[in-house]
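Minutes, methods subgroup
Present: GH (chair), OT, SY

1. OT presented the first of two proteins processed in the latest run. Sequence and structure tokens recorded below as shown on screen.
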Amino acid sequence: MKLLIRLSIFFAALSISSLPSSYSCNPKDKNTLLQIKKHFNNPKLLSSWDPQTDCCTSWTGIECTNGRVTLFSMANDDSVVGQIPDQIGDLPELRTLEMSFINLTGNIPRTITKLKHLVLIFLSWNRLSGPIPDYISELKSVTFLDISFNKFTGPIPGWLTQMPKLQTFQANNNSLTGPIPNSFGSFVGNAPNLFLPYNKLSGKIPESLSKIDFQAVVLKGNGFTGDGSMFFGGNKRTVQLDLSRNLFEFDLSKVKFGKSMALLDLSHNRIFGTLPRELTELRLERFNISYNRLCGKIPRGGQLQTFKSYEFAENRCLCGSALKKAC
């Protein structure tokens, strides 16, 4: 699902930024791009960036609208090494910034705050490090922020709640620490999709999150403890919830499920109780409650019958046809 979300947003941006234009590349933008090329020691990836040609029509990874650069894509070449250049902030009409699957180091420069029209940020699969800079909160038009597969440290930034258009925050596979901020109980816009798996996060989930209607929350592979039931609710529109491989401990039999739930993974926790019959009414595409402390008979009906025995395995006393174990 994460990949589908990302691809749909990225290709939508491509279609918008690549609209036909009779304008040639703005000289200031062109000069900025050439400085960026020099910053990275003229890599082969940017060999098409010839000063004698038009940057809007001939340069790899560049798209323009009315002669101004609106998309910058520099990706999939691990021979590119270095920090994000300060000059990236000198592309004032930039909407999409893609610098993924290369070897970026350091942190995100403050000059990024000059990009007031920036909507999409893809910086995954690099070696960026340090705390996530608080000045990113100044980018009020950003809808998608992906910093996954880096080496970021420090807490989850509470200022994410102050980004009014943010729809998705992906920070999986970093070294973030601490709890989910209390401020996540109130967003100035709609609650974004949160992808935070495989960090070093811990602590209890703030009760204030029970009021928030997330579409997707993935907390897999952290050290969260206590109650995780606040992510559920009969009136919520959550599609994906992955709390697996934590230390959550709550009674599943008391949980109410929203009708939109399709991807549910609660495996490898300390969840107890019985499986609610409501689960048979959901159109589940993925389901795993293995390695918990659940008991009782597995309800029959719906999509529950389509899942394998290992997705129910290693519980205290679950029984039923899925486990081929009589009750």
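2. SY then presented the second protein from the same run.
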Amino acid sequence: MPSETLWEIAKAEVEKRSSGSEGDGLEIGEKSVFFIGSKNGGKTTIILRCLDRDEPPKPTLALEYTYGRRAKGHNIPKDIAHFWELGGGTSLLDLISIPITSDTLRTFSIVLVLDLSKPNDLWPTMENLLQATKSHVDKMIMKLGKTNSKAASEMRQKIRSNMQKDHPDRELVDPFLIPLVIIGSKYDIFQDFDSEKRKVICKTLRFVAHYYGASLMFTSKSEALLLKIRGVINQLAFGIDKSKSICVDQNKPLFITAGLDSLSQIGSPPVPDNDIGKLHAHSPMELWKKVYERVFPPKSINMLKDIKDPARDPQYAESEVDEMRIQKDQELEQYKRSSSKSWKQIEFDS
């Protein structure tokens, strides 16, 4: 019998640990964090920093898994954190369903990493990933509710508790049913943008994060910012106390914990009052999208589509292999042409 691969062993271990405890399918001390976001946006760098691994980040192939441990005390089992990372930007959305199941849902968190240095790609990347993830999470919540309605209800109540009961926006938002953190990466490049452009990006991300009940923060290669991010990820992975600090100044790296912002503080979309009436939108989210895309129009659909064939992805380029691939492609085309001529000759002769 062939031996199991490392991937199969890891996946089986996650499923066993998630469903192996008594009663409610939850084992204390184990959590999962799923990183999604912009291609080459810095997801791997953040994971390595959180795990104290001093190694250069490598391109993520499809869906990757690693884990970390944290000691709680003498003779006490270590907490375990499972880290999943989706590569390819928005090109591999189907893989979101692999780590997020009805069994693992209660211990899951999502971290969306967005590249601030590429504002024209930011909205489509964010929209596609959040919609795909939210749709799947909602399906898993419904599935969980059929077998454990109490657990599903507790999840809904817990995520709602991030916002105070008397918060004026409580009925105006639609939070993710699992913890969500939005990280804007490459702040060192973003901070040199024109102030009006920074204002549009900051206000838009604040609205989206607040609407989905997410925490929002910016980071870069700065050690101080990376330490802040590490603290947030440790809170998701190991249950460390949540930070209550807040920074909403667009001239500084944003840091806003879920539930601490408000629509009144964010303000209206950054567009002249006489122009808002010209924007036809069916929801606040659609209005913010239209305003954002007026300033940062998305690239053409063809350019937005990530390369689904890894063999043609520039980040995996290898000259010898690529040369052989080109040669084989040419041979295939030549074969197709010769076959076509042969069939035409047969038809003509008949």
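Chair's summary of item 2: Residues 120 and 299 are 7 Å apart (CA to CA).
Next meeting: continue with the remaining queue.
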